[in-house]
Amino acid sequence: MTAGSTSTPREPDPRTAEGTEATAEPAMELLVHGVGGATPQDMLEDPRTVRVTGDGTAGIRRRTDDAPDRPLDERRPVREAYSWSNLTSGNGARALWLLLLPFMIANVAHWMRPAARGRRRAHELFDRLVRLIALSLTVLLVSGACAVSLDLVAWQCGGDPACARNTSWLAFMAAEEGGWEHPGRRMVLAAVLPVSLTMLLFWLSRRTWSAYESASPPVRARTGEQASALLSLPGFWYGRGIVSRLRAAHTAAGLLTVTVALLTAAGPHDREAGGPVPALLGGLLTGLAAAGGLAVIVLVTRHGRTETEMDEKPVPRPVRLLPWGAGGLLVLSAVYAAWERPGWESSGQLPAGWIFPFISVLQGVLVVVLALTAHRMHRSVPAGERGALAGLGGAAVALLGCALGGVLTGGVVQRFADWLAPGAVAGGLDGPIPGPPLLLSWQAAALPSLLGVALVAGLLAAVGVYRRSRKRAPLVPDAYPDENCEPHPERSIRIASAVERAALTDAAPRLVGWMTAVALVLGVVAVTGSQLTGRTPGAAAEQAPALLAAYADVSQALGSWLMGIGVVVMVAMGRRAYRDASARRTIGIIWDVGTFWPRAAHPFAPPCYAERAVPDLSWRMGTWVDATGGRVVISGHSQGSVLAAAAVWQLDAPTRSRIALLTYGSPLERLYSRWFPAYFGPRALASLHRDVPCWRNLWRATDPIGGPVGVGGGSGVPPVDREPLRDPLNYGRNLMRPLPEPILGHGGYTSDPAYEEERAALLRRLARGGVPVPGQAGPAGGGPAAVNHPQPGRSSA
């Protein structure tokens, strides 16, 4: 069989070729890679592989030489590799998903609730508030598109003959014939952009769900067995109903936003000047739009996720018809706006500019209420199970998502305004055209201050790492007592620096907390300043001291450019991430964490790869155990360890009794337990250890992502965590290792001798029914402990 063949080999036969019972039962190791991906050839250490199951997007492969009659070996079981990297990466077009980052962040906030037991109403309120915040982000994005097309292009530039003539593709609007001097008709034409954006998001959401998230979880009866964790619920990884309902609601909201923009332009003219179009008609359409908005809010807040069973109920007919009703109202509003109105001219900014301050205030209020709700839930949680930021992680992340949405929207609008009529951004109301909404200039002026705080925090962290590394470096050689070599100051400093840099991960909650607080204060200042002064920041500070006035001018201009550059940089980073493996690893840490969670709050967020990967892994383990009666070690690195844990949770007790879990470089406690305590908190991880007693975890102090999980131990059951592995394996040179050993950090776990030791021990324990084997693999030499590096612990800062 040639490499790359897609034929499916038979399962390993538990009998030998002679038909007698094998001396050992079948054993398989299922490898799951982490962030950034790894090829099956690298994981299996063989260039020749064959696909066992799956497709080109995600599949399980095996070495070609692992034939069914291969002799069984406890230390080298049949190895299979699950490759899921194409679920999150691929061609360069997926870089555009980065523009959906605010949606993804809002969706992640949904899963960051405190681990409060009971309190059903508090949980429901938390969910509803997050879904409303997510809905506001959709309205914000479509409003930004309306600001570009309806306000800047159709209303401002189209109403100014000089601006229209200077832009070749708008020259037809400068003509006095053809009807384009009518503002309503220009706006109807320009409405194609936000409507197209809304329908594109709808199409992407529907297409990606069918491609990534429609895999059916394994149906494993839990007779007499109660779900031990939320991730073990049968419907957790199948959210078809909630995604369909939210998609209908957000699509309707986007279309209604365009409708409101059209009505607020034509309505004031009909009420003030009179004319052939009755003002009552505009009022009726406005009332219908308000009723549609109320229906959207009810739909978003009333229906949540159904996890106790697979959500396969058909979407109710009224929900399916809601986008169609919004589209019909949009058509009627377009006819109303395009109606002939003699003497109607566009001047100033579009009257719909009030929507940006309204959205900002609404988001601020929702985030504050969300924070109060989360803090109340957090207070009822035992001290050992509390998450990061005193339970305010979800509110903090939601606020940062809103801030990022405002930056992206403002960046596009302001850069487009400056390109359409140079000077429109910096000049404000005194420029060639009135320019974008005033609030965007204030938000732009606040951006340099926010980035300055982040820069100061980064410098302080760098100085702290430098000082602690120099202090710790003399202790590094003590971690290698078996090596008789002279200390090397430079190498000691490198090792100590790697340990200290890895420890910065534990300070992330404090950084997020400070950034959130600063963002909230600056947001309040931006909204208040824009509404009270009615002027740009530079103009409002003219009477202030010279230094403050200069700072306001520089911040406004610099922030405007930073907003625009930020959009370009995000797209460029996304394209590089999907072409360059090293860049993908850097960006993928946040990206793979965000898209791990199902779309429960925002249907236009990037697709959830775990709704495909978790069922794939559960099906493979379950069917292999059923077919062979053998043992399985599922081996997960980094994010792969999270997928492995989630897949094991989905299995029934008889199947789990044949499963062992081997994790390494795992963020289960260091990241997921702290930020998602309701799903991966200490109580959930302890329940996973009860479900899977054969579990071992490898980690290093130089690893910035992985760490100990902190469960197990006592009552004759070994702890899950092995002592921290040495990194590097050798301090100096020797006859067997003439070159310096590299500092591996987050990678290279499978090359450590401890890996094969723990895998063999797990297989022996499975053979004994999960009972620890006397004399099994013990802890490795403790390099990190010898340099007095504290074991990463939980932080509520």
Automatic annotation (TrEMBL):
<keyword id="KW-0812">Transmembrane</keyword>
<feature type="region of interest" description="Disordered">
    <location>
        <begin position="1"/>
        <end position="74"/>
    </location>
</feature>
<feature type="transmembrane region" description="Helical">
    <location>
        <begin position="248"/>
        <end position="267"/>
    </location>
</feature>
<feature type="transmembrane region" description="Helical">
    <location>
        <begin position="354"/>
        <end position="375"/>
    </location>
</feature>
<feature type="transmembrane region" description="Helical">
    <location>
        <begin position="387"/>
        <end position="413"/>
    </location>
</feature>
<feature type="transmembrane region" description="Helical">
    <location>
        <begin position="511"/>
        <end position="534"/>
    </location>
</feature>
<feature type="transmembrane region" description="Helical">
    <location>
        <begin position="95"/>
        <end position="112"/>
    </location>
</feature>
<feature type="transmembrane region" description="Helical">
    <location>
        <begin position="132"/>
        <end position="150"/>
    </location>
</feature>
<feature type="transmembrane region" description="Helical">
    <location>
        <begin position="554"/>
        <end position="574"/>
    </location>
</feature>
<dbReference type="InterPro" id="IPR029058">
    <property type="entry name" value="AB_hydrolase_fold"/>
</dbReference>
<keyword id="KW-1133">Transmembrane helix</keyword>
<feature type="transmembrane region" description="Helical">
    <location>
        <begin position="279"/>
        <end position="300"/>
    </location>
</feature>
<feature type="compositionally biased region" description="Low complexity">
    <location>
        <begin position="768"/>
        <end position="777"/>
    </location>
</feature>
<feature type="transmembrane region" description="Helical">
    <location>
        <begin position="445"/>
        <end position="466"/>
    </location>
</feature>
<feature type="transmembrane region" description="Helical">
    <location>
        <begin position="187"/>
        <end position="204"/>
    </location>
</feature>
<keyword id="KW-0472">Membrane</keyword>
<feature type="region of interest" description="Disordered">
    <location>
        <begin position="766"/>
        <end position="797"/>
    </location>
</feature>
<feature type="compositionally biased region" description="Basic and acidic residues">
    <location>
        <begin position="62"/>
        <end position="74"/>
    </location>
</feature>
<protein>
    <recommendedName>
        <fullName>Integral membrane protein</fullName>
    </recommendedName>
</protein>
<feature type="transmembrane region" description="Helical">
    <location>
        <begin position="321"/>
        <end position="339"/>
    </location>
</feature>
